[in-house]
Amino acid sequence: MSIQDITKNLMRKFTSDEGEPLESIDRAQDQPLDEQKIVNYVKDKLEQVRQTNSRIAVDGVYLTNVAYLLGFDGVYYDTTYRQFKNIDPKRKLTRNRFKINKILPTIQNRLARITQSPPKYDVRPNSTDTHDKDAARLGLDILNNILDKECFEEKRQDLHMAAMQGGVSYLQVKWNSEAGKPMVDPETGEMDGYEGDVELEVLNCLELFPDPLAKSLDDAQWFIKAKVRKLEYFQQRYNRGHAVKEEDAWLISSFYDLKSNALTSVGVAGANTSNQMKNSAIELVYCEKRSKEHPNGRMIIIANGVLLEDKELPIGEFDVFKFDDIVVGSRYYSEAIITHLRPIQDQYNITRTKCAEWVRKMLAGKYLSAKGAGLGQEAINSDSGEVVEYNPVPNAPPPMPMNIPMIPQYVYEDIKVLDEEFNQVSGIGEVSQGVSPGSSMPWRAMALLQEQDQTRISVQTKRNEVGYAKVGSAILKYVAKNYVMPRVMKIAGDAMQYAVKEFVGSQINGNTDAIVIPGSTVPNSKVLKRQDILNSYQMGLLGDPADPKLRAKVLSMMEYGDVAEMWKGQALDMGQIKKAIDAIEQGEMPNNHEWDNHGLFLTELNDYRKTDKYEQLPDESKKIFEFVVEWHTQVIVNLQNPQLAQQQRMAETMVHTQNQMFGPLGQSTANPSSGMSGGPPNQQPMEGQTNG
Known about the structure:
The chain is an alpha+beta fold. It has helices spanning 3-11, 33-50, 53-69, 103-114, 130-149, 152-166, 231-237, 256-262, 337-362, 409-426, 443-482, 526-538, 548-557, 568-585, 598-609, 612-615, 619-640, 642-662; strands at 75-78, 83-86, 121-124, 168-176, 182-184, 191-194, 197-204, 208-210, 222-230, 280-288, 298-303, 306-311, 320-324, 367-368, 400-401, 487-492, 498-503, 513-516. Among the domains are: 3-95 and 218-317, no CATH class; 527-558, no CATH class; 568-662, no CATH class.
């Protein structure tokens, strides 16, 4: 019987969107034969990857790079014996105080450049329909809210540090059913699980086993994720979780952390991995790309021989995304930058160690003394006024200081060259280090040097932007599928605007096409960027320099810390205008006031008039919109022509007095400037409208 036939028979029993939970068992041996075949099938797939030469090499390279990152040199990880060993077997594995770890600061500098600028997302609507555009805007707000809640910037640092250690790393988007608020049955008051929420998980190169024939993760037909979990994890999440028993560490990915940490204390001897695997087991998640047999893909989860789940992929496609360090053409595993820094680190420390030995042996000085002088061992020391006694030797001079040879100049030149090679290999130029090529160099030339640095690092950042875009799309797909109950989203926008929205996943309406704005993650110099913006502003290229709105926008573009207080009045005006537009959209009259910022009101209302939202307004809302525009226009006219405004108020007063004495003589037209002595009214209600 083929594996496809076995799967078809089992799918009716397994946990899925339509199936039933697995039958409870006490141990792996109690499983039916067809279920055991599924378990063996996944294990065979895992062994296929483990036995490939490329995978074995990756295991050794990753752990060796970790050792160098921690400050060791001249070591390698032996994948056969699973131990760290010295390249020179006579040397002892230690972190000599005379050595300097140049890899660590170089990697920190490179990591800072890669993660300096966060990705800026956008969501493309499925059509030009207003509902799709609104859904895309909502999706963007949801995406940014989830990334902020998941501490995306922190996980980006972990992601790219793991890539620099092993060449590749992974970011998985998954659904955590134990996250979110607890759900309580309103009738019984009992807790019925949790809402669940989207979760991001960083995986290093040792925790994922891809299809050995794949050139990229998109090309892979399947992959297996291996993760060490405590037994309580299985018991809480799976119906058969209590059948999972403790197992030994048989995967390098299951104990690489302990091996790396053991370097700081026990050195080459390693450490006992049994402590780490106590009360733990390895969770294996087999994911298969969708096919005719499995239109929505397939996911099998096992642990220590126990089949836990066999179901469809949660979103019908892979939710794990690969990030590379140094790309190699037609090869799945990329190169790690630390691999290429290791030879430089070895040579650098050899030179520095020899210099340190010279200082230790030569700095105290040496003396020439004839044999038989009888000079005491402690005769020459630092005591003040000491009398040095010796036995005179015929025809021999008294003990005298020896001329100590200096360290040759080429040694210092070699150290300088090695130091520069660290930055050269890592793609870190002088501008990135904060070193000025010269005090007379103009800022434009500095910008060109910075662009040269950006050009090299952009090879990686552009690929990262593609990965981030896939992550964003997967997040929205999980939200659209699983956010069934209303969720609350808190937004703090520009201009002191705050919003709390309630939404469900169906409101995204399938608009899950997230993209990252090209170039948004390329590291930039804020000083040079601010200078460019300031020059454009002063030349009037951005608009009228006297416009308060433009000034606030320029300050925001220059990325100063907190500009809200500097433009508090402007921010409050923008918030008031937004409230007025919201009231118009709901068919209500906004609360206009004679002290409003009428010019800014007209500018924003005119911009709103050009949007699709205005075209979709009902006729009543458009009438209110036109009335509000006319009201603010009339106020500006009155302020610019106070004599005309006074004449209008006198005429209105006469009409009002005449109506009181003789009754209304006719239907008067609504004048937006009438109704308040000394200035315009709050508003005159239109036909069929009441004051908001």
